[in-house]
Amino acid sequence: MKLRTWIVIFSIIGVVLGVALQRYVLSKGEAGMAMPAASAPAKKILYYRHPMTPSITADRPLKDDMGMDYIPVYEDEQGKQSIGDNGVVSIAPNVINNMGVRIASVQRSVLPRHINTVGYISYDQDKIHHVHLRTEGWIENLRVKFAGERVHKNDLLFETYSPKLVTAQQEYIQALNTGNKFLLNASRTRLSALGVADAQISRLEKTRQVEQLIKTYASQDGVVAELAVREGMFVEPDLQIMSIVNFSSVWVLADIFEQQAAWVAAGQEAEMQLSYYPGKVWKGKLEYVYPDVDPKTRTLKVRLRFANADELLKPNMYADVSVLTGDAKPVLAIPREALIRTGGQQRVIVALGEGKFAPREVKAGSESGDHVEILEGLQEGEQVVASGQFLIDSESSLKASLQRITSGDTAASSATGSTDQAKPPAIGIGVVNKLHDNKINISHEPIASIKWPAMTMDFQLADPGLASGIQSGSKVEFEFSEAQGGAFVISRLNPLKAAP
User: Fold this and answer.
1) How are beta strands 488-495 and 455-461 bridged, if at all?
2) Which one of 117, 197, 272, 331 is separated from 355 by 20 to 30 angstroms, measured CA to CA?
């Protein structure tokens, strides 16, 4: 063969071997790349959370009112929720001290079901006796001279001259003389119906003499609470001559909050103390729960009864009352000040340790004293923030604070003193609500540059003179930035002219 022929043959063989070698290498590479992919599957999405309010979640991708996408929350390598996706903020220890943050544990305990309230002492209505005449007449020989006078059972109160009573006595004497049993019973019954005491009727039977004045006696021991007559007055049956109150027991009327209404029932034990008699405790019972709630105070009235043998309890006195409603089952509880209520939501700030905090939505139950029951959202042993009132200054400032907490780039870096380059100031437009000290409250429009929705919140003024000439209701343009510690400081404030 010629040399040229051999060259062509070797060239063809080289091309075939090259193609085969390339396919072999590619097949090996694809196999090698497939192995890691099989060993590292994609992370599972637990749910999607609202970009501004972490407590609002969804099981599918959504957009908020501003058109922002909900943020997916993934499982980490241990299958737990990613801390960064749950709105965690890291705060330096010195900042925590300056904020006055106090931590409390979520504990399982029995909440004392003692309702403490204030009541006022009233007459025992079962021990009030009203004195009326059953016929018209004139008051004679009035023995009770003033309201507040003490009387005893069977004491003479007054005497009455009444022509009808004189006539009724004469009829009874005639019936006695005739011996007619029918007339005798009828006339005696008429005397009793007119209020003549049995003792007077018996005396009339013996003496057969008409008495011009009919006596009226006290039916019980007590104090004359009201006296409406004077000596010689003409009275009729509809006039209440006097009322006599027995103070061996008193009523105490107290108001309890609407949410505690399910705790109270008739027969429960109660205690009472008076400021004018420190150290003494009266024991009584809850006697009646009134059926309606006061529409103005949203409270339920209850009635308690206390023994008053020594008569230390005076009507219209104020008293500190404690209703012992019994012990409930152990429940999860936190300090009441740790619970943040915003509209229809309830949340707490959970302390995660090492200076980390996160908001969490909870469901609260009944309250007792300084503690509140937690039905959902917390576990025993977790830590919650029990102070730091800047979070609950108002609903609007709470939203801003929680937004700053969930903003990992802003609040975390400022609180921990990060040396990262500061973000440029933001510019907003809003209406001034209030000026106080070096602070200004503004209802501002959405600020797109930092993805803020419209809200009402407090700002600090870098210089109090910036507010010169600014009044409540003024529309302003303002430039602000976040200072160390999470406060927002206005560096420029310009009034805007109202649209014509």
Assistant:
1) parallel
2) 331
